Amino acid sequence: MKLNTTKHRHSGTRRRPITRPIAAALLGATLLTGCQQANQSLFIGDMSSAYNREIWWMSVWAIVLSIIIFVGVSYALFYTINKFREDKHDAPPAQFHGNNRLEVILVAVPVVIVFGLSILTVRSMAILNPTPAQATKIDVLGKQFWWNFAYPETTSDAGGVVTNGNEIIMPTKQPVALTITSGDVIHGFWAPNIGGQRAAMPAVKKTWQVDTDRAGVYQGNCSQLCGGSHANMRYKVVALDQDRYNTTLAAMKAYRAPEPAPGSAEARGYALFMQGKASTQAVACAACHRVQGTPAAGAAGPDLSFFGTRRTLGAGMWEAMTAAQWTEPKAKEQLHEWIKHSPAVKPGSLMPSYDGSEYLSKGQKLKGGVLTDAEIDDISAYLRSLKLPEEADYWSGTPINGANASGGTQ
Fold it and tell me: Which residues form the Cytochrome c domain (predicted)?
C-alpha cells in the first residue's frame, strides 16, 4: 500500500526540485512500515450476503438471456450471409415490400425479454429496498475524508448516542438498516461483501439494508470521487455473531473514558487533548472530536471514544494488525507522525498540524500550532488508553475476510 503523492511532470530539460518528493517518499515509507496491513480483497459475489445472493440470481437470468440473444443473432447473421452469397445466386433478387411476420417477431421478442427482466428487477427491488422493522439501525455519516457510524437506538450511559469512527460493527444473520448522509460533498458507501453501494448526499438521508451470514472483517471504500483523499477514505465492517455483538454494544453503551492517573503521560495527554496549548496556538483536539464520558463533544472529526480498541487510523489509510496494536514501536511512531502533521501525510486532511507548518483547510492556508514531540507522545498515550473491556474487543479472534499472508485472524 502506498501513500498518494503528487506526481511531478517535467518536459524537455526543465527539472523541478526533487527534495520535497524524496522527503515525502521517505516519510511515507517510514509510516507505512509502522503498521501491518491486512491487504484485503473485495468481492461483489460474496454469497454470505442475502443482498448479494438476490442480485446474483437476478443477474443469472440477464446473463443467460444475453447469451441466448448473442447466439441467436450470430446464427441468423452467419446463416443469412451463407445462404444468400452472391456466388450462389446469379438471378436478380426478388423485389417485395416488407415482411410483416419478421417485423412482428423482431419487435415482439425484445419487448418480451425487456418485460421479463423488468419483472425480475422489480421483484428484487421489492425484496431488497424495504427495511424490516426488526433490522438493526445504524446511521452513517460521510465527510472529507472519514466516516462516523452511530447507533441511534443505543444511548450511552454517559450521554449521547453510541458512535464509532471509521469502523462499523454489525450483527450477522439479520438485516441491518443503514441510513446514510453526507456532511459536505457527495460520497459513496460501498462494502461489496455485505451489499450494494449507496450515495451519501448532503441534506439527504437514504436507508437501505445490508447483511452477512459470516462473521469477519470486511473492507469498505468511498466509491464516489470526493476530493484529494478519495482513495484514502476507507472503513472496516466488523460483523459479529449476535451474542458477541450484544456484548460489544452493551460495553460501548456503558463505556466511560478512563480517568488517567495523576502525573501520568495519559493525564498530560488528556489535558492537552481537552485544552490544547494556547501559548503556541495548538488547537484542542476536543474542539473537533468526541470522547464518550468526557467534556470532549466535537463533531467536526471522527469519534475517538474507542480509539485504543480500533485497528485503523486516518480512515483506514493505515492499519495496526499486530496483537500489540498501537503500542508496537513502529505503530507508535506512525501515530505520532499522524498527530504531528496529518495534512502532510494525508492529502486534503482538515486536521490541523502541530509542528507549526502551514496547511490548507477548505481552500484557505492556515498555520498550525506547535506541540513538542513529548507532548504529542502524551496525546498518543491518552488515545491508546481509550479501550473497551477485553471481552468487548471486537477485533479479537475475528477473521479478516479476503486478507493475504500479511493479515489474518486477530
Answer: 264-387
Query: What CATH number does the domain containing 170 carry?
Result: 2.60.40.420
E-strand stretches of 80-175: 136-143, 146-155, 161-165, 167-171
Domain match, 108 and 187 both: no
Sequence-ordered list of residues with C-beta below 8 angstroms from that of 46, at least 6 positions apart, any chain: 52, 192, 193, 194, 212, 401
Tell me how far the alpha carbon of residue 396 is from its chain's centroid. 21
Question: How do residues 51-88 score in pLDDT, each as one tens digit?
Answer: 999 999 999 999 998 999 999 999 989 998 888 787 77
Angle between helices 373-384 and 265-275 (to 10 degrees): 100
What's the total number of domains in the chain? 2
Kind and range of the H or E run holding 78: helix 50-83
**Beta strand 198-200 pairing with 234-240:** unpaired
pLDDT digits (tens, 9 = 90+) for 162-205: 999 999 999 999 999 999 999 999 999 999 999 988 999 999 99
Closest C-alpha among 372, 331, 337 to residue 351? 337
Please check whether residue 371 is in contact with residue 378, taking contact to mean a CB–CB distance below 8 angstroms: no
- Among residues 378, 364, 350, which one has the least CA distance to residue 276? 378
Backbone angles phi, psi at 298, to 5 degrees: -65, 150
Q: Which three cell numbers stand for residue 299?
A: 463533531
The residue range of the domain holding 163 is 136-236
Which residues, at least 6 apart from 54, have a Cβ–Cβ distance to it below 8 Å? Answer: 124, 127, 128
Q: Which residue has the cell 524524496?
A: 22
Please check whether residue 271 is in contact with residue 200, taking contact to mean a CB–CB distance below 8 angstroms.
no
pLDDT at 407 > cutoff 80:
no
The β-bridge relationship of strands 358-361 and 318-319 is unpaired
Burial of 68 (0-12, 13-18, 19+ CB in 10 A): exposed
Q: What is the pLDDT of residues 123-154, one digit of tens each?
A: 999 988 888 889 999 999 999 999 999 999 99
Residue in the structure block whose three cell numbers are 479478516: 400
**212 shares a domain with 146:** yes
CATH of the domain at 70: 1.10.287.90
